[in-house]
Amino acid sequence: MSKLHEIPIVVAAAPPAFTPEESAESTVLALLCEIEAKLDALLGAGEPSTIDLRWLMASPQTLERLREALGKGEVEARIAGSGISLLQETAVPCVWRVSHRDSDDHPTGEFVEITDLPELLRSDRLAIPQGLAALRARCAQAGESSTFSSMPSPREFPS
C-alpha cells in the first residue's frame, strides 16, 4: 500500500476566467434553452411553468440581455396594488416577463412565465357571485331595466 506522500501530484492550470460579458451571454443562453424546453412542454402537454429570476436581479446587465433576446410582444399589463406588477408578453407567444416592484419602486420579483395567460391576470371564478350581485345593484340603482335581474341567481340554476 502506498503512502500519502508517494502519490504524485499534478498541478493543472486554472481554466480561463470568464469576462462579465461572456458570463452574461452563457447565462442567457442557458435560460433560453430552459425556456425552449418549457415552451415545448406547454405545447405538447399543456404544462405551464414559471422561471424565478430573482437571483438575476443582482446582475442587471444579464437581465437586460435576456429581455433583449426575448424581445417585446404586443400585450402588456400593469397592475397597481401594494406595489406595481408589470406583465409583458415577449416576442415569443406564451412567454411572459413578469416584474414586481414594492410601493417604494424597488424591484421585488422577476419571473418568466410560460403560459397562455399569466396567473396574475386570471380572474377569480369564486368572485363571480359577488360581482354579479354588484352588477345587479348597479343596474337597479341606475333605474334601468336589466335582463340580469330577471335571471335566476347562480344558486337557483337546476343541477
Question: Could you explain the architecture of this structure?
Answer:
- With about 160 residues, the chain is of the alpha+beta class.
- The protein has a domain of about 100 residues: HupH hydrogenase expression protein, C-terminal domain (Ribosomal Protein S8, Chain: A, domain 1, 2-Layer Sandwich), CATH 3.30.1370.140.
- It is about 35% helix and about 20% strand.
- The protein has four helices and five strands.
- A five-stranded antiparallel sheet has the order 1-5-4-3-2.
- It is elongated and about 95 Å long.
Question: In terms of structural class, how would the helical and strand content be classed?
Answer: alpha+beta
**Can you tell me the CATH class of the domain at 20-118?**
Alpha Beta
How many separate helices? 4
Encode the helix/strand succession as letters.
HEHEEEEHH
Distance between the termini: 82 Å
CATH superfamily of the domain at 20-118: HupH hydrogenase expression protein, C-terminal domain
Q: Please state how the strands of the largest beta sheet are arranged side by side.
A: 1-5-4-3-2
The percent of residues in helical segments reads: 25-40%
The average pLDDT value, as a whole number, equals 86
CATH architecture of the domain at 20-118: 2-Layer Sandwich
